[in-house]
Amino acid sequence: EKGGYDYFMLKEIAEQPKAVADTLLGRIDAAGSLTLDEVRIGAAELRELDKVVIVACGTAFHAGLIAKYAIEHWTRLPCEVELASEFRYRDPILDPRSLVVAISQSGETMDTLMALRHAREQGSKVLAICNTNGSTIPRESDAVLYTHAGPEVAVASTKAFLTQLVACYLVALYLGQVRGTKWGDEIRAVIRDLSRISGAVERVLETMEPVRALARSLAGKKTVLFLGRHVGYPVALEGALKLKELAYMHAEGFAAGELKHGPIALIEEDLPVVVVVPSPRGRSVLHDKIVSNIQEIRARGARTIVIAEEGDDAVVPYADHLIRIPVTPTLLQPLVSTVPLQVFACELATARGNEVDQPRNLAKSVTVE
Ligand code: F6R
């Protein structure tokens, strides 16, 4: 049932191009518009919204953090992202003009369920993004957009995360489409790029051998840091979470712009630091800033592991290890930049003799608060 792979996690990582394609299937029409019939919240109501609030836990929360960049950019609606476990205990401001998006692979996470119940009590509409048909969270929501990742068996989430991202982009683009924004042309272009993105995920998977070799060489380390900016920041958090869960190593993700506000004090000789570099096109100012960050940490002895777009030559002089990812639109980059981090964590766990599919102390779905 592992389809020739040693672990479900490896199988599920390999299934990501298909999971992404399946999640897009039937949702983009021939004219390049989105048809999200499942979002049974009428266009008039969507036009009335004044904010979006995303609630989720763990990896799904990281998908939500990325969604915020997309939703705010394409719809100009304010978007808050909150850990479901914190949400309802702080008396959040919600009303019928707030759209609450609950993201959950299992559809059974108690914290997320309690958050959505609280939101509905305040009169907000809840849209679930979920991978499990008929589970509790979609049943208790006003509408559901299913991710079509197929069953995810490994405790650490991989393909579900990528499909959650796809679903979040679809929601963001759909809201943009329905509400109409000045980004109409960009939205059409991104829908086209999204429809081809599974090929890019496939290409990343074909180049992972050096990442595995690097991971094995770091098996004796205690700490790995992850840096990113913009949508690369949640990717850094996700890379760190995967490493904690699987390799039981101390791993932390930081926004690269925060380095000088504290984390740079952690840098010491030969400390592995993974840096997710934004595209040099588009928001190129961020790219240049992160290249300076890489220089700064390397000057202090860090071993830099740089994830950068094909053709981005500016990073080459400062990268001890360079991992290339395909060129994508800025906001879609997490779909390709997360993959090497999954492979990295999985291989490090194996090298350390850990149980990859069933890490200690963890459960696949957390049905208690
Ligand atoms: C990380 C992981 C967890 C889950 C979290 C939410 O690899 O698997 O952090 O993402 O427990 O679970 P769902 O998405 O089922 O609500």
TrEMBL record:
Localization per Swiss-Prot or TrEMBL: Cytoplasm
Chief place where the protein resides: cytoplasm
Reactions accelerated catalytically: D-fructose 6-phosphate + L-glutamine = D-glucosamine 6-phosphate + L-glutamate
Listed EC numbers: 2.6.1.16
Active site residues of this protein: K364 (for fru-6p isomerization activity)
TM stretches of this protein: none
Its biological purpose: Catalyzes the first step in hexosamine metabolism, converting fructose-6P into glucosamine-6P using glutamine as a nitrogen source.
Subunit: Homodimer.
Official protein name in the record: Glutamine--fructose-6-phosphate aminotransferase [isomerizing]
Originating gene: glmS
